[in-house]
Amino acid sequence: MRRSIATVSISGDFAEKLEAIAAAGFDGIEIFENDFLAFDGSPRDVGRMARDAGLEITLFQPFRDFEGLPEPLRARTFDRAERKFDVMAELGTDLMLVCSSVSQAALGGIDRAAADFHELGERAARRGLRVGYEALAWGRTVSDHRDAWEIVRRADHPAIGLVLDSFHTLARGIDVDTIRAIPADRIFIVQLADAPAVPMDFLYWSRHFRNMPGEGDLPVEAFMRAVAATGYDGYLSLEIFNDVFRGGSPKSIAVDGHRSLVHLMDKVRRAEPGIRISVPPMPARATVQGIEFVEFASGDEGGAALRSELAVLGFSEAGRHRSKDVTLFRQGEVNIVVNSDRAGLARASFLTHGTSAYAIGLRVDDAAAALERARALGAETFEQPVGPGELLIPAIRGVGGGLVYFVDGVSPLSKVWEIEFTPSDAAPRPGVGLTRIDHLGQTVEQDELLSWLLYYTAIFRTEKTPQVDVVDPGGLIRSQAIESADGGFRLALNSAENRRTMAGRFITESFGSGLQHIAFATDDLFATAGKLAGAGFRSLPISPNYYDDIEARFGLDPAVSDRIRAANILYDRDEGGEFFQLYAPAWASGFILEVVERRGRYRGYGAPNAPFRIAAQKRLLGSRRP
Ligand code: MG
Ligand code: MG
């Protein structure tokens, strides 16, 4: 499998694009005509720069409104094509993309179009060039790859072939299995893009909302399985027009693009075992069994506040690290590590972000395999010197430069707590009933949201839930969760459109993206709330208006509603079950601790309650300011 990307997909100037694309591992680039209209070098310079970066120019595009024109427009468009052939010779590419005509002057007629392509094929062949024909979803008479293929077939010229583009086929909901009947040698290139499922005009959707395979909602995998079934093994080329990417970091967009292609082809290889697909072998997506720990980086002062908050929440000090200033707190299956050591990444993270949860540990089926897969998908691995008696725990970089550690049930990683920590002498506290971590919330910059969704869904066996817009009094927060099938791993990714939201405040106050939210699970939130109150826990006060609203909305039994009102508990319900939430006041940084109880098969995260609790959090934070 050779990988290509259209230069329009990436932000930056031409040199920056090339550097980012080459570094991410691509073999080729598609050149968009506009790319070098803005560039002040010649097509020959563009070609040389690409080759110097080790990249082949896979395609020159687009050539528009070619087929079906009456004379004298027809003669003129052939002249125009000849001039583009000159440019291609200078660039050093042999393939031109012609997209289906949107011209009002085009006459239509499948044989007229075929005759035009036959002649174009003759002219291209004389120069050793080829032409691929692509059906635009909004083409005037040709908007379906089946019609484009029929024209290519009737053109009957070796220099004329088909261009398939997943967006155009999937946007129109065309049956992808029709691709399986197309001979592979007639497919000159395959372009890939995904997009979110938002109903809108095809042209506008395509020009502004395309994203990397796996980042959107289109069935790109089904499309690619059909393409693979033909035996096509040529370039797969990302052609992504996206307003956010245009302003993003060239490096991370190139890395995401490459990751999306490798992940897609790995999925296709697993789904179509009978088809030979050249993608580097790698372990399957890691199954996350649970969140083994969350590690805070802290210093003296913030550390003391964190320790006392953990004590109120019923955590016991379970151990001290044998060689570092690191303490383990435990309750149920929840492990919270507080790292106040003066060296290493934790210290660096504390100095940058203040007291914050900079690392998470995921319990996976096979930690070594998870690391290998992450590496194959271009994740940055992390190692720091290990002291005597310490384990080298596999880790990769995650959100905000933090870490994701992998532990598993295989020795010695399964014994990490016993090996690295001296058990505490003190008798454990009785606890308040926290059993495990229900979910984590990570807050990221708006232009990173898709990157992290792809990261989690490509490396781990997780699926993403539909995007939810959470209304914060200060603006919108976009929230999308990724979950393992059994709920052992749930993580909400949130991004804020501005700094006035709670998510935006967190990014400002903690100097970047990171883990903003931990939700602990309990089997009985009313019992837990009672024990917390006894331990001096101060819950986030919720407005009485909220309770009046949910009583009406859900027709709640007054007895239930009185109980939740008295305890500042929030309530939600879906088809599967019920959800109860209890919040602590947010930290000044915007960091949030919450305890939840799921009853039945409730699937959500209490999003309808978010505006109320955010308003309450902001009221408290506001009143605390000097
Ligand atoms: Mg295309
Ligand atoms: Mg939550």
Write a concise keyword list for the protein shown above.
626 residues, alpha/beta, TIM Barrel, 2,3-Dihydroxybiphenyl 1,2-Dioxygenase, domain 1, nine-stranded mixed β-sheet, eight-stranded parallel β-barrel, 36% helix, 25% strand, elongated, binds magnesium ion
* CATH fold-type name of the largest domain: TIM Barrel
The small molecules bound here are: magnesium ion
| Biggest sheet character | 9 strands, mixed
Instruction: Kindly provide the radius of gyration, computed on alpha-carbon positions and rounded to a whole number of angstroms.
Output: 28 Å
CATH homologous superfamily title of the largest domain: Divalent-metal-dependent TIM barrel enzymes
CATH architecture verdict of the largest domain: Alpha-Beta Barrel
Q: What form results from the Cα inertia axes? A: elongated
Structural overview:
Helices cover 36% and strands 25% of the residues. Strands 17, 18, 19, 20, 21, 22, 23, 24 and 25 form a nine-stranded mixed sheet that branches. An eight-stranded parallel barrel has the order 1-2-3-4-5-6-7-8, surrounded by six helices. Strand 14 and strand 15 form a beta hairpin. It is elongated and about 90 Å long. Residues 134, 165, 191, 239 line the site of one magnesium ion. One magnesium ion is lined by residues 439, 441, 517, 519, 594, 605-606.
